[in-house]
Design a protein that fits this description.
Layout lengths: L6 H19 L18 H9 L10 E4 L7 E7 L3 E8 L12 E2 L5 E7 L6 E8 L5 E4 L15 E2 L10 H10 L7 E5 L1 H4 L12 H15 L3 E4 L3 E2 L12 E5 L6 H13 L3 E6 L25 H4 E2 L4 E2 L6 H17 L4 E4 L2 H5 L21 H17 L4 E4 L21 E3 L1 H11 L11 H4 L10 E5 L19 H17 L3 E5 L24 H19 L13 E5 L7 E6 L8 E6 L5 E8 L4 E7 L15 E3 L10 E7 L3 E7 L8
Parallel strand pairs: 9-10, 9-20, 10-13, 13-16, 16-17, 17-18, 18-19, 19-20
Antiparallel strand pairs: 1-2, 2-5, 3-6, 4-5, 6-7, 6-8, 11-12, 14-15, 21-22, 22-23, 23-28, 24-27, 25-26, 25-28
Helix pairs in contact: 2-8, 5-6, 8-10, 13-14
Length: about 675
Amino acid sequence: MPDDPTAGTVRATIDAATRERRAAGARDVPRHPAVRHDVSLLTDDDLYLFNEGSHFRLHEKLGSHPLEVDGQPGTYFAVWAPDANHVSVIGDFNGWRHGAHALAARGSSGIWEGWIPGVGVGTRYKYHIGSRFHGFRADKADPFALYAEQPPLTASIVWELNYDWRDEAWLAERKRRNAFDAPISIYEVHLGSWMRSPDHPDRLLGYRDIAPRLAEYVERMGFTHVEFLPVMEHPFYGSWGYQTTGYFAPTSRYGTPQDFMYLVDELHRRGIGVLLDWVPSHFPGDAHGLVYFDGTHLFEHADPRQGFHPDWESYIFNYNRNEVRSFLISSAIFWLERYHADGLRVDAVASMLYLDYSRKDGEWIPNEYGGRENLGAIAFLRRLNEAVYRHCPDVQTIAEESTAWPMVSRPPYVGGLGFGMKWDMGWMHDTLSYMAKDPVHRRWHHGQLTFRMIYAFNENFVLPLSHDEVVHGKGSLLARMPGDEWQQFANLRLLFAYMWGQPGKKLLFMGGEFGQGREWNHDHSLDWHQLEYANHAGVQRWVADLNRFLRATPAMHELDFSPDGFEWIDANDSEQSVATFLRKGRAPGSEVLAVFNFTPVPRIGYRVGVPRGGYWREVLNSDAREYYGSGMGNAGGVVAEDEPCHGRPHSLRLTLPPLAGIFLMPDPEREGGP
């Protein structure tokens, strides 16, 4: 095997950290008997399934496990390092001395294991690994650790996951709440910046501190789910969790694993689902992490044209390696089962699917057929989704996939990738581009509003306005809206009206729901003080009412993924920048009429064809005064006239407020009007 150019740097960095620990804690270290190698949690079946790539609960076997043997407490350790020639456990209990507690290789499995008496919960540890190649030596955190030191410290911590869950009622109805025909409106949250301590704005709130605040707020706002940016342990806070080192450990920045369980539990007890961002696409090159784990490219692909990501300067998993597939799928199952997560949003799927993703000619290697598709990643994603839905049938997996890859949210048995849903990045880009334009120019770009319906039912789509749209100089959603202050807020309410009106599930990043003025900054709390102003409070009230309407109205969610749930009234009024359509449920007569005026010019007497006569009640109007609008509208509703329009037998003469969306529904109890 060729020399690795990073080996010396990695070794020097780790050895320096070890020397510092040893100097600080080597004195008066209690000594324990030798490691016992006759104790094991691994069966021959475990080893077979692991090496085959079919073991999906590796966390129950590898890592550190407090275990009493012959009446004596201790901890069993097991780590995968097939190209090591020696592995030992170092930690608080032996002064971080290399070789003091050596593990033994388990046959040809590549796993090293042993039971150490006297080591218990709370013990800090690492694996000291000596490789068969280049004289490489490294101190590595446990890939299966359940808990870790607070960064910048990097040791793993022996831990147990005992917790008295109280979310039985939620779990009993989770299948219904996660179903394709359920109302799903997701509030995306970064834990470190949603809210900080009022008295100490530089201090992060812990999981338990956030739990009641977040649960109460999300319940009041009417969102159905919370999606957390990755909570898995990560060394660099500024990565927002997307540079993961601990695939089985919630970050200790906010507390213990049990504290995070408490947060999930509290949300569930309030009837709120929990989705977790999960990153199987790449991992960072931190010396204590997965990279070059045993002196070889164990987790990552060896060739940098396949194993190194140029955009994120991170490493790409080798999806062709059976043990890597077992590792990643075990991580997914772990969060769903042990932390009761209701779904996983899988990050950067496009970067996994394409071998030439973000690479120039000559910087990538074609597959065996000469194509650009990453066949190993495709097989992995299908296996992942099959395993998740087999073992956790009540959850959802959601792909962040930014290309036109076909059938992302279709089952593997018909050639799909097997995800439950997929982010509609095309809708997001088109709609934000359209909304950023001065209304006088919007008529020339009307197709950006309507194009989505050509493909809207090819996948099970989530409409995202995520954290990626309010960072890196893009500004906040509010700041991207054109016009004076009033028009900016009106445009933002109109954007949300159109988003909630469209078929598909909804996702909104924190701060957007009250029109935060500045771009998101992970080092600061949201600007909650802005809710003292009527314009921001009006946006917040509008989003809450949209959520309540979504949840209470079957036509707004029941057929999100079916063309039967949507019907254009008029997609072609580009001259006046007006769009009109129907949302429909399964029950006859359950239509909702949605009308959107994308200019600041009120439209008086605007005629819209409707499928039935009688009274149509105006149920929501983004221009209402309680939302900081001008107060224009239709006086509660309109009686349909027997004048055909838009190919329908009846029509309404409506007042369209400026820069506003309105929703109307037939009211059979008021056939003759008010």
